[in-house]
Design brief:
The complex is a heterodimer of chains A (about 250) and B (about 240). Chain A is built from eleven helices and no strands. Chain A has about 250 residues and is an all-alpha fold. Chain A has a single domain, classed as MetI-like fold, CATH 1.10.3720.10. Classes of the chains: A mainly alpha (about 250), B alpha/beta (about 240).
Chain lengths: ~250, ~240
């Protein structure tokens, strides 16, 4: 009741105060133009399908590469130290560089080698850039999950004569992966948004398409439309991740 | 020849010397109980026996084979030595029957179909016939610990190690787990127990070893060790726990 009342008061204030700002009529015309919105929205939705497609083929690659890197970082035998070192360097480097820089470097750099079609496609190298960056984050999440499985589980598996590989595959990983589903969901929501960064190296996805409309119509409303489309996906996904996390916390306590 | 034997087994964790030269002999079919205060080295000794902890010095002989040589593959050894832990350590994401079948399937390459008969028989033998499809969280502590015992037995070990397996149980559940041990004892299983259940040790053990300060200070048949201990420290320990 109190919450509802105060929310209402804030909303009313916003609706009254913002239009009082001196620049409001101009902003309204160039950002919230109903006619432009109606005209461009179908085209934006169409372009968004490309974002969804890039996300859809990147996500499984990120999942598996992230898992591999996490396993590499868990290699404890001295003979496998190079593997472990590779895992450490990989996560350090790709978590340490802004996504957009990786996209530029890979997306412009590799095709610059003069590769023949289709190997110079920005779709391929843009995807590679996203996969490299995001699998570094996902690997760290998996590693946290692996470390959260108590040592006694490994002892029990070892005492039964299971190999290290079987212990990881049947005992540790199934528990680890389940525990980090919410954390990974958050990363994949971020990925869905970052797909738009690929527009900088070529693909006409929603952000680029919005830019095209903006130039054609001299109006910023298409950007608002694009933002609404992203929100329509990310808000439900975020709520769902929160729900999973709350459930995880309840299960623990 | 002893089935399992240690000579001068030493193990330290950093500066902390936990086992300071342990000589232990377990004959086939014997039940040996390790008693002693917490921190006296009982659990560490058991973990060393199935190579969960590498030892610093000494030898461990299983059926006459030195299993403590550096670089030895521990897996085949562990398949011959079953172990049950204080905290059960069942795999929480698997049903009881999957817990039991995992190692035979992966290590012995046997199929579920092949295993069903003998695994079902094992569950029934220990009164768990109607609990096979349950997940660990759906079982009481006593049931979980019995499943853990069944899981170790399914590998058909030559010897079983029990690390204070009733210490984490509510008092009313201790009995059902001890009954399983009694049953195994009757079937002639070779067993080593780290335990605080003095009454049980006295009733069933062939030999009781009192560990103190990382060595076996005194050992002998239970009636002798419990009624006429030779060492002052044994007497002091027993007067505290009995």
């Amino acid at each position: 009741m109190v919450a509802g009342g105060s929310t209402l008061a804030v909303l009313i204030a916003l609706f009254i105060l913002i239009p009082l700002a001196p620049g409001w009529p101009a902003v309204k015309k160039s950002f919230f133009n109903g006619a432009v919105f109606a005209k461009t929205f179908p085209g934006l939705l169409d372009a968004f399908l490309l974002d969804v497609a890039i996300f859809a083929w990147s996500a499984p690659l990120i999942f598996f590469l992230g898992l591999l890197i996490a396993l590499a970082r868990d290699a404890h035998s001295p003979a496998l130290y190079p593997v472990r070192l590779f895992g450490i360097v990989f996560t350090d480097v790709f978590r340490g560089v802004p996504v957009i820089l990786v996209i530029y470097l890979v997306g412009f750099g590799v095709p610059g080698l003069g590769l023949p079609r289709p190997w110079n496609s920005p779709y391929i190298w843009g995807t590679v850039a996203l996969v490299l960056t995001y699998s570094a984050y996902v690997a760290e999440v998996f590693r946290t999950g692996i470390e959260s499985v108590h040592q006694s589980q490994r002892s029990a598996a070892a005492s039964l004569g299971l190999s290290n590989a079987d212990t990881m595959r049947y005992v540790v990983l199934p528990q680890a992966v389940r525990r980090v589903v919410p954390a990974n969901m958050n990363l994949f929501i971020a990925l869905q948004k970052d797909v738009a960064l690929l527009s900088f190296i070529g693909p006409v996805e929603i952000f680029r398409q919005a830019g095209v409309y903006k130039s054609l119509m001299a109006n910023f409303t298409p950007y608002v439309g694009a933002a609404l489309i992203f929100l329509a996906i990310t808000i439900p996904a975020t709520r769902y991740a929160d729900h999973l996390m709350a459930r995880e916390r309840r299960a623990k306590s | 020849m002893a089935l399992l034997e240690t000579r001068n087994l030493r193990k330290s964790f950093g500066e902390n010397a936990v086992c300071r030269g342990i000589d232990l002999r377990i004959e086939t079919g014997q039940m040996v109980c390790l008693i002693g205060a917490s921190g006296s080295g009982k659990s560490t000794l058991l973990r060393c026996l199935n190579l969960l902890e590498p030892i610093d010095d000494g030898v461990i002989l299983l059926d006459g084979d030195d299993i403590s040589v550096p670089g030895l593959d521990p897996q085949p050894v562990r398949q011959r030595i079953g172990m049950v832990f204080q905290s059960f350590n069942l795999f929480p994401h698997m049903s009881a029957v999957e817990n039991v079948m995992l190692a035979p399937r992966r290590v012995h390459n046997r199929s579920r179909e092949e295993l069903t008969g003998e695994v079902t028989a094992l569950f029934q033998r220990f009164g768990l016939g109607d609990r096979m499809e349950h997940y660990p969280e759906q079982l009481s502590g006593g049931q979980q610990q019995r499943v853990a015992i069944v899981r170790a037995l399914a590998m058909k070990p030559q010897i079983m190690l029990f690390d204070e397996i009733t210490s984490a149980l509510d008092p009313e559940l201790v009995g059902e787990v001890l009954d399983v041990l009694r049953q195994l004892r009757g079937e002639g299983m070779t067993m080593v127990l780290a335990t605080h259940e003095m009454g049980f040790a006295r009733e069933l053990a062939d030999k009781v070893c009192f560990l103190d300060g990382g060595v076996i200070l005194e050992e002998g048949p239970p009636e002798q060790l419990f009624s006429t201990p030779r060492e002052d420290r044994t007497r002091a320990f027993l007067s505290r726990v009995l």
